[in-house]
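Quick review question:
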């Protein structure tokens, strides 16, 4: 059937999905198998292999980036990217007809996604059954995405802040911004990434320019090394161990160091990496319906 221009323009527009924060999908035209005389089908393994092929370090011998559900031979009907494959995200994936979730963080509540200790656990069984009964594949993309150069989790976060221009190739996680007070930095972060509150240590009227971003859960040793080597005005983290990094900052200030700490929350600090992943998939696999769904924060505040 020959399509006129108005019809062609109409069917090439993206669909809008209610529920959850969504970044776009494929054109409706590609949902019709043989409009152009061919149909592109891809497996879960092909998607994984394509991404890994672009990582400078190549295949990692030891990694947490494994399939948590499904198998590599599954044909991909649609992809969802999210920070966490929560039960809510899984249900939304089912609703939109996708069958492949690419998450940045664990699915089963521990770094290695070890489920032996969760045998007969009702929450684990509910979530696992939901994935198995609906033939949903889940791949954790954590180690590989962080090894792209520059790390897109950090760079996409800084782009959202419009602060990437203040970084260098030598230290892409350090932004030397025009002088601001600490309270101004905090309010700017809250506005740009859409969070209601942060936790912090410091003098709200302190002048700040050198901001060191260690997003997610880098760990106290990495925090201490960054503080010693770079000597930032502010360390900005996703999450911390309160009895380690927070106490170090408190003692550093007590001895006279003018250093502050801002804790954003793990998801708030790294979710932009899943938005990057959706954009990458749309570019590399335009025939696949790809959707970013925000898993949102796990914690609420009074």
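Suggested answer, residue by residue:
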């Amino acid at each position: 059937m020959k399509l006129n221009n108005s019809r062609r323009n109409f069917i090439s527009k993206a669909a809008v999905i209610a529920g959850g924060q969504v970044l776009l999908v494929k054109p409706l035209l590609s949902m019709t198998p043989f409009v152009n005389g061919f149909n592109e089908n891809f497996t879960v393994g092909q998607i994984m292999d394509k991404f890994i092929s672009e990582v400078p370090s190549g295949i990692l011998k030891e990694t947490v980036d494994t399939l948590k559900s499904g198998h590599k031979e599954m044909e991909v009907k649609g992809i969802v990217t999210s920070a966490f494959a929560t039960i809510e995200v899984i249900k939304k994936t089912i609703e939109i007809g996708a069958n492949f979730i690419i998450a940045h963080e664990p699915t089963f509540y521990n770094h290695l996604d070890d489920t032996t200790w969760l045998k007969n656990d009702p929450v684990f069984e509910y979530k696992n059954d939901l994935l198995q009964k609906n033939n949903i594949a889940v791949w954790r993309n954590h180690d590989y995405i962080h090894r792209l150069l520059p790390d897109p989790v950090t760079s996409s976060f800084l782009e959202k802040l419009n602060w990437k221009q203040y970084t260098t190739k030598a230290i892409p996680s350090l932004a030397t911004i025009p002088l601001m007070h600490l309270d101004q930095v905090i309010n700017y972060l809250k506005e740009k990434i859409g969070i209601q509150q942060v936790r912090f240590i410091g003098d709200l009227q302190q002048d700040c320019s050198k901001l060191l971003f260690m997003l997610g859960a880098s760990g106290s040793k990495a925090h201490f090394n960054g503080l010693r080597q770079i000597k930032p005005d502010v360390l900005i983290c996703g999450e911390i161990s309160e009895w380690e990094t927070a106490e170090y900052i408190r003692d550093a200030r007590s001895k006279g160091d003018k250093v502050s700490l801002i804790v954003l929350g793990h998801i708030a600090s790294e979710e932009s990496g899943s938005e990057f992943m959706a954009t990458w998939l749309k570019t590399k696999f335009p025939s696949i319906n790809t959707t970013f769904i925000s898993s949102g924060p796990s914690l609420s505040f009074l």
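Why it works: The two ends are 59 Å apart (CA to CA). Residues 152-264 form a domain with the Udp-n-acetylmuramoylalanyl-d-glutamate--2,6- Diaminopimelate Ligase; Chain: A, domain 1 fold (CATH 3.40.1390.30).
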